[in-house]
Amino acid sequence: MAHPATFFIRYLLVASDDVGLKAINRHLVHFGLVPLKEEDLEGHISAAPPEPDDFRPWDKSHRPSVSWLRKSKIYSLVHRDAPVNEMFSVFFKEPRVREDTERMLIGGVPYMEVAYRLQQVGKKVSSTAIAEFQHYFWNTETMGVADWSEYFSKASASSRVGFMEKDFTAALHGGPELALYRTGIESELNTKDMMTGLMRELWFTFSEVKTLPLSAKKVEMLANLVRGMTKVDERLQASDTALQDVLKQFEKFKVQHDTSALPGLHDLAPAGTVSDKTRGEILLSRET
What we know:
This protein is mostly helical. It has helices spanning 6-15, 21-30, 38-47, 63-71, 75-78, 82-91, 95-106, 111-120, 127-136, 145-153, 160-183, 191-210, 216-251, 265-268, 279-287.
């Protein structure tokens, strides 16, 4: 099973003395994640690159070990820096911030925008800390829709992930706008884009209904869909017409150019300049 905390699990395999299933799952549950099965853990172990000889992960001066940590994408968790420390101090001590971040990330909101959106509602978290959290605990890049579905199916109904499953799934399928809406952050919506999206949905539904066997119900469904598409099309055309009317209003305004002559140098400095030169000296210097 794919897991959003793949790189955290890889870190545990390196950093923990006990790398058994119970110990790994104890850490995962502690951080509010879905535990692994035995075969899942074996898959994570086999996916890790082979360790170098004389492996010393805690020694920053040991180049082979440092190279392995970077290749395994767990260097910053072994040798922790400020963003990683911030990640632990925020996301595992402030549940609401974590839930909002997870919802936006799974909905496809980029981590830099997540930081901005959180700041809008008074929750200050650096984008680098969010990027670290996404990498180690909520990795949306390694998880597809099917992976998330399987992950949620393994969550207990009483667990944190199980409790949030419906909310997370809605954001996963609904995209960034729905994720922001569910988070309680206002998202500006473009009416024309909304109507265009609705038209696409109606068309695909119409295409599916056409494949059904002929019946009175099919005829009724097709008629309703056609009426719906007609109304949406009218709204789209009305929107375009309104935009054209606004543009025509702007065409009435024209910028008038100032045709008056610029003042000459003699007018600006009749008695000389700040350099104490006379008008004759100025003219002489221009001729030479």
